[in-house]
Amino acid sequence: MCESREPGASARRLMDNPGELEANGQSGRSTVRERVAKALDALSDGLHPYVEDALKTIYKDRWFKTVQSSFREGRGQPNADELHMAWDAHAVLTVMWDQWNSVFRHRLGSIHRSLVSELREFRNRWAHQDEFDFDDTYRIFDSCQRLLSAVDAPQAEFMAKEKMELLKYRFGLEVEEAQRRSIEQKRRWRDLVILTLACAATLLAIFLGDFGTRGWMLALFVVAAFGYVISQRFFSSIPISFVAHECRVCGRIIYGEVCPYCVAEGRLKATPKDGA
Q1: Largest CA distance in the chain
Q2: What is the pLDDT of residues 133-144, one digit of tens each?
Q3: CA geometry: angle at 43 spanning 87 and 60, to 5°?
Q4: Are residues 119 and 165 in the same domain?
Q5: What is the total count of domains within the chain?
């Protein structure tokens, strides 16, 4: 007899309220672990009814004892008794893997077996407090969606929305960075033009006053030299200074382009120019 809870209740709540991740200003600050945890919850909610039905079809009344054999010596065994099986992502994926040849091989394809293996590895990494970058997180969401879609679980729709939200957030950061650099570039060109024109006007006035009409050639040469020096100053690879601002990933106050806290915690990858 399985645990008496509504299948997919937690995931269905998230599907009905896709803005939940944005509640309390957490859209950009929901940690990767929180998002992965939601994905694993949706996975277990969507798969465990399918897994139970498949096991009961093959093993009948012996299905519960068969499931318990997948957790030898109690290691990693979910909270289960003779009446209930507390399914979580670890339990569902472990049972699917152990019972693949006997139960699931003729129901699902080899690609789905690979997804089960991959998600088991990601789940173990999550349980050991490993951090995930964007690529890993997107891979988890995509694999969860594919496996849930294979069993026609409604949680697949939730995972599809999660993938889109993750992509929107990533692309949003890239667009903001591109806009910031574009504004900075325009500001540099504007300052260059203003300084060059001011320098030209000043020098022309001086040289024309001292050398007459022949002074414009000398003034032109000096303006060109100053223009070159100014352009080198504006377009050299000098680090852009930042005022104190909030990191969109972790919410901490930072003073540079890359958040050192996120780099240290593995949420972002440091680039050579970051010095990390």
Answers
A1: 109
A2: 888 999 999 999
A3: 45
A4: yes
A5: 2
